[in-house]
Amino acid sequence: MSDQCSESHAPVSMGYITHVWWPLAASWLLMGFELPIYSGIIARLNDPTINLAAFGGIVYPLAILIESPVIMLLAASTAMCTNTSRYAMLRSFMLMLGIGVTLLHASIAFTPLFEGVVASIINPPEEVLRPARVGLMLAVAWPFCIGCRRFNQGILIRYGKSKLVGLGSVLRLVAGTSTALILGALMPGLDGVLACSAALSTGVVAEAIFSALCARPLVRNAIPEKTPSDEELTWRSLLAFYVPLAMTPLLLIAAQPIISTAMSRMSEPLDSLAAWPVVAGLTFTFRSLGVAFNEVVISLIAAGENARLLAKFTQRASLLVSCAFLLLLLTPARSFLLETAFALPENLHELCELGLWICCLLPGLNFYQSWYMGVLLSKKKTIPIVESVLLFLVVAAGVLGWGVMMGNEVGLVYGAAAYALAMAIRTLWLQIRSRAVRTSYHLDNTHNTASLNQLAAN
Questions:
Q1: Residue 99 belongs to what domain range?
Q2: Is the pLDDT of residue 300 over 80?
Q3: Share of residues in the chain with pLDDT > 90 (%)
Q4: Mean pLDDT value of segment 278-303
Q5: Identity of the highest mean pLDDT range in 9-13, 115-119, 178-182
Q6: Helix, strand, or coil here: 83?
Q7: In angstroms, what is the C-alpha Rg of the chain?
């Protein structure tokens, strides 16, 4: 029996919600550690400022943008791998999509397209271009492996092996970090962006192989040949389902290179590009706890559970994570992270601190985003989510454009402000657009509570 099925028959309480949420949060948290860890390694190797700018400002955001079409293969696989014919079609789709985004990545990294995309559009400082290009070359395995592992992870989740997803995240982090540390130790003069770009590929290759091996027994033994309730899956219906689903991460991830591009055109571009991965990575580490809550909301509300408990959990978790992040900023832990853990050059300390303060509300805000999105998705309402992402991009582009026009403004300040304000506006829009659905759940509270009491009694 799958986790999803088993969860739907359990009585709901705050403790139960926590039980469902924490394994997913742990997996997201491990992925959130990736960029801060790599930034810390780069800061200890050759030319840290240039390499931090190349990795965090070019390689990492561009690689994620290129692979964004495969991100929602996890949701597609979880929802649609209900029989062997559907599995075969989705696997073919995954392979074609993975090869397509890999060819796009290789085209940018290995051909003159690099000058057109990176040198001309992003236009970073000249000294960042060479290490960034080699870094993209070394990360070429990233998009295909991300697609494979997310496809297979969806099967693991659907057929009751979701804990293996977390183990895969551990393996990815250990394999990638070990690769970067070994390369740095063996070649002390190596550019950090090269060590960590190679680590990116190593980590996702290991995770993709692990998830494929774990999913293989399920493909042989757990996926039924045919289920009477399944409608025939055609390429047209698959694309109609997947294309809108893929728009949200694609548009959100597009903000990262847009921020890098704008910072490259403002004051102190090199320092801003070097500080941004630390600010974004550390903020995302805390935000990831809220990102994981989205799946909890969908699964528990869809099972008819009490919406008020989920709303209360959102409030408490948001407050707790916000306090933890503020505690980090107000105590010596901040200096320890920037000076010792990340080993940042002294000229970047103040800039990173300022960026973290600008983004201080984002970790708590992510719980509310996941709450509102989960409520909407429980009723199959995806249009408001796409609207919120488009609004996010408009607000972020407006703030960044204003900063570029001002001429002499520090890039990181406007980059962090654009991201924080756009996230706040996006959350507000999701709150407004989910109000009717949330009201309907609250109106059904009496019925839901009675149902839960009956479940508990049985």
A1: 43-225
A2: no
A3: 40
A4: 81
A5: 178-182
A6: coil
A7: 22
Query: Could you tell me where the DSSP H helices lie in 1-138?
Result: 3-7, 14-42, 48-54, 60-67, 73-80, 84-110, 113-114, 126-138
For residues 51 and 190, membership in a common domain is answered with yes
CA torsion 19-325-348-358 (nearest 10°) is 120
Return the structure tokens found at 338. 């920037």
Tokens of 37: 């860890």
Q: What are the beta bridge partners of residue 267?
A: 410
Find tokens 């500080």 and name the residue: 275
Categorize the per-residue pLDDT at 135 as very low, low, confident or very high, splitting at 50, 70 and 90: very high
402-433 as b/e: b if 16+ CB within 10 A: ebbeeeebbbbbbbbbbbbbbbebbbebbbeb
Q: Are 282 and 431 in a shared domain?
A: yes
Q: Is residue 342 one of the residues assigned to a domain?
A: yes
Task: Report the C-alpha gap between 71 and 85 in whole angstroms.
Answer: 22
Domain match, 258 and 159 both: no
Q: Across all residues in the chain, what is the average pLDDT? A: 84
450: pLDDT strictly greater than 60: no
Whole-number Å distance between alpha carbons of 390 and 437: 21
155 and 268 inside one domain: no
Q: Are residues 66 and 205 in the same domain?
A: yes
Identity at 287, one-letter amino acid code: R
Q: What is the mean pLDDT of residues 62-73?
A: 87
C-alpha 362/C-alpha 329 separation (Å) is 14
Which amino acid, 406?
M
The token pair that represents 168 in the structure block? 């895969």
Cα 87 to the center of its chain, rounded Å: 25
Q: What is the mean pLDDT of residues 289-311?
A: 76
27 in a structural domain: no
- Give the model's pLDDT for residue 230: 65
Give the three-state DSSP class for 141. coil
User: Do 209 and 268 fall within a single domain?
Assistant: no
Give the residue ranges of DSSP H helices in 118-191. Answer: 126-138, 142-158, 163-186
Q: Do 219 and 368 share a domain, yes or no?
A: no
Q: How many domains does the chain have?
A: 2
170-to-29, 42, 162, 217, 292 alpha-carbon distances in Å: 10, 21, 14, 21, 16
The per-residue pLDDT for 58 is 87
| Residue 234 placed within a domain | no
